[in-house]
Write a structure and sequence with these properties.
Belongs to the UPF0102 family. It comes from Saccharomonospora viridis. GO terms for molecular function: nucleic acid binding. By secondary structure, the chain is α+β, with helices and mostly antiparallel strands. The chain has a single domain, classed as Trna Endonuclease, Chain: A, domain 1. The chain has helices spanning 11-28, 77-93, and strands at residues 32-40, 43-50, 55-63, 101-109, 117-121.
Length: 125
């Protein structure tokens, strides 16, 4: 069971809200969303998008505060390596031999007293 934050929102609901905000942001940037929450045995990719030339793999980190640090700090080297491996699995599952790749991070802070703040790190790793 997910514990509510200060706003009464569960961790799952907070993460979903963050991903919804990230998708809206990416669409405003002109990207086409290919898939959300793609899963395989090894893990999950949050958002896969394209600008028509490049596959953009976007990791979304949403926090209700800074008690656990800045959201981008949660994308550790291990997490980056896992995202790269999962991207290769996604490409193979879609029978894509090769395409340019970009790995972005969208960090969202949803403080109960302020509007959400979004930071998009393009080419984060």
């Amino acid at each position: 069971m997910s514990v509510p934050d200060e706003k009464g929102e569960s961790r799952v609901a907070l993460g979903r809200r963050g991903e919804d905000l990230a998708v809206e942001h990416l669409r405003r940037q002109g990207l086409v969303i290919l898939e959300r929450n793609w899963r395989c045995r090894e893990g999950e990719l949050d958002i896969l998008a394209t600008d028509g030339r490049t596959l953009v793999v976007c990791e979304v980190k949403t926090r209700s505060g800074r008690g656990y640090g800045i959201p981008t700090e949660a994308v550790t080297q291990d997490k980056r390596n896992r995202i790269r491996r999962l991207t290769l699995r996604w490409l193979a599952s879609r029978r894509v031999a090769w395409c340019p790749l970009r790995f972005d991070v969208i960090a969202i802070e949803c403080s109960p007293k302020e509007p959400p703040r979004l930071r998009h790190v393009v080419g984060a790793f």
